[in-house]
Amino acid sequence: QVQLVESGGGLVQPGGSLRLSCAASRSIFSINVMGWYRQAPGKGRELVARITGGGVTTYADSVKGRFTISRDNAKNTVWLQMNSLKPEDTAVYYCNAFIATSGVYYWGKGTLVTVSS
Fold it and tell me: Closest by alpha carbon to 30, among 87, 106, 85?
């Protein structure tokens, strides 16, 4: 098992930046895919970005060129750098880990990002 704790959310003006962090309770070296998802009010949860153990990244079209996901296996941490934020980026952001050997997805409790003037 692995526990995930997100941090870094908050209120930011349109055009601003935030950096979200996801700290894992154990080594993420063997975790195949780490990702960030988000859920806006009244909407379903959607993929924002994910990164494999080999560093291959995938982004939602809506955030390409603005968000960057990265991971540091030595620090058991994954980050999501969010630039040029828009009001439509407002959501609860969740960290996710997928372990292929067990086929299990793990989720953090989420951190709220609000983009508003």
Answer: 106
Q: How far is CA 35 from the centre of its chain?
A: 5
Cβ atoms within 10 A of the Cβ of 31, count?
23
DSSP code of residue 14: T
* Confidence check: pLDDT of 100 > 90: no
Quote the DSSP letter at residue 28.
-
* CB 21 within 8 Å of CB 77: yes
Q: Give the C-alpha distances (Å, rounded to integers) separating 34 from 9, 14, 47.
A: 18, 27, 11
Shortest CA distance to 10 belongs to which of 116, 117, 106, 112? 112
How many residues are present in the chain? 117
Q: What's the pLDDT tens digit per position in 50-97? A: 999 889 999 999 999 999 999 998 899 999 999 999 999 999 999 999
Q: Is the torsion defined by CA of 47, 48, 53, 55 positive or negative?
A: positive
Residue 33: how many CB atoms within 10 A of its CB?
Answer: 17
Q: Any idea what DSSP says for residue 89? A: G
